Amino acid sequence: MVTGDIWVYLIENDRMAQIAVRLSRDFHGRGYGTESLSAMTHFCFEHTELQRLWTQVDVRNKASCRMLGKCGYTREGLIRQGKMVNTWCDYYIYGILASDLQ
Q1: Closest C-alpha among 45, 58, 47 to residue 100
Q2: What distance in Å separates the CA atoms of residue 75 and residue 58, rounded to the nearest whole number?
Q3: Whether this model's pTM surpasses 0.90
Q4: What number of other Cβ atoms are within 10 A of residue 16's Cβ?
Q5: Is 94 exposed, middle or buried (0-12, 13-18, 19+ CB in 10 A)?
Q6: Domain with 59 in it: what CATH number?
Q7: Total structural domains in the chain?
Q8: Which of 9, 11, 43, 64 is positioned for an S-S bond with 17, CB 3.0–4.6 A?
């Protein structure tokens, strides 16, 4: 069984990228998302030239908002009725800078 996956994509000029975490429902609430996001965030800032990571999360997804906060991401804005993947919804933009971890 697959636990989930994590992506770093939409890399712009080796400086900024979007990050996403998706977990199978069987693994929700066990800390795997927080652990994997934290590890990938540190890897990106310590082993690449990336200086900023960002993501978007549906405002109704409280668990993902908590996970992002635990990993040091800051809520930077709200998009109202925007398109996120295949859904039109309100969503938050979260971001973190390499300097935030120092």
Answers
A1: 45
A2: 12
A3: yes
A4: 15
A5: buried
A6: 3.40.630.30
A7: 1
A8: 11
